[in-house]
Amino acid sequence: MCYVYCSFLQFSLLFLGVGLWGRINFNQIFHKLSTLSYVLFGEAKPEEIELKEDMSLESVRELLNHYKKKFKLPSNFNLEEFRLVANGFFQAEGHISCRIRGTYFSPVLALNQNLNLKSMEFFVTLWYVLGKKGSLGIIQNSSGKFVIRFSTESWELILGSFYSYFSNIYGEKFIAFQKLLDIRRLTTEGKVKSKDSLFMATKLVYSISLDGVKRKLSFSEQLKLLNLNHIEGVLPDYKDNSTSVSLLFIVGFILGDGTLHLRLRQLDNGSIWLIPMLSLPQVKNAYSAHLFNLFNDFFNSINIKTIISSNIKNETSSTEIDSKLEFKSTSKVKGVPTPDTSPEADARPLKVVEGRGIIDGDTNNSAVVSPENLNIKKMSTLRIEGITSIFIYLLPLFKIDSKYFYWKFDQYELLEKVSRLVNSKAHLTYYGMVTIIKIIYSYPHERHQTENYWLDLIQLWFKEQSNLSHSGENYIQAVYGRSELKGTIVAWKCVLPKDSQIRARQFGFKNKSESGEALKKAINYRDDSIQNWVDSLK
């Protein structure tokens, strides 16, 4: 108990001057901040802390240092699982390069992310499993936001433990490690450096990034400075990583560049489509096709089809691996799905249209992938769209490893909550669809339309469908009599979607005056049953 008390006392005193004790908010980058793991306080009781938006850089750095000192891996921590996630994140956000100072070559390995509680947890975990090697700190970018940064310029660390740890990466970054090995071999201290070696090492440095790293000197200027402009040479042929990607690698990639999101789209007939999506963007270069082929092979192995889009400036072209995913209504009313008068109808058909941009109707702006907001002139995006692909096949796999979503857990959580309702066909009911919209808007993603915009559309849609029923109500059917009562309505029957497993119930009457009372009872039964059913799915 003494240890627990001291931990909290020290933590309190450390931040007394910056007002941390209590609740803290940060930069409003993430509106929903998670609780730090218990490891922050060692054996102490977990406490929810938040990063305050007016904290100084020095105060945030003190917080990080305190966290690093107290950090311990949980007893059930899986090192290999985390390594695969870290490799996926490094694939998306990692940086490898090399500097030239005179004839000295210095490697650079760096990994950055906007600071929040979960990114702090991830980066400190990475720093810890890498033997507490390298530099882990906080910087402030040009817009004033705090960024957590892991980096090193040590040949020993990069080509030693880090090279083997990040062995499950691909493309430019995978080959960059091989190039660093050759640069080191050509420029090792104590070894006589020939002009041919210096030339090849310099050429390798300038080839590490296909898009080029901003340098003070061009390649030709650097050669001239080293008096190497008269030498020629051809780079070795480097092989990319052919190892299959894993689900955990994909989770890590999502942490960096990927996005899970839900699109809402209004149809011409007034209905609404719910379109769950996964977007995996990657810089378009000589290696991106190989990585996307590996992604595609993985997803195809679990019956998920993909679409790859190439974006150059504002132009979009699509290579359609899966031409269409569509759920067709089984309603007998031509051209108009009638969910509440036909329990088997799927009122929210899904259709993936070739060549459409990611912005269509209403979307999560954080998911929008464009050259402008990623500061990339050319890029490719692998997309997965659809109820079956996302809700049926992919999310159950993600659920097992959902803890590794860290600061993007809210994206997974939103889709998981909505999937429970959609998979149970709750979206075919008015209350179910309203519940889905309210869940979507409970998450802090900017959208083009307001919540009330969609709620009004839903109300109008279900009202129009109810007008197609003799009862004037959705899911309440007319029951006709027999013999002398043939052709006469004698009861109102509430029939709900089969997936609800709600028992159908009939409310009879003998005359018109009783008909109204029977209809009220049927409506109450329907509304209470649907509400209890939908609420049980939340």
From TrEMBL:
InterPro entries with a match to the protein in the record: Homing_endonucl (IPR027434)
Sorted UniProt keywords: Mitochondrion
SUPFAM superfamilies documented for this protein: Homing endonucleases
Name listed for the protein in its UniProt record: Homing endonuclease LAGLIDADG domain-containing protein
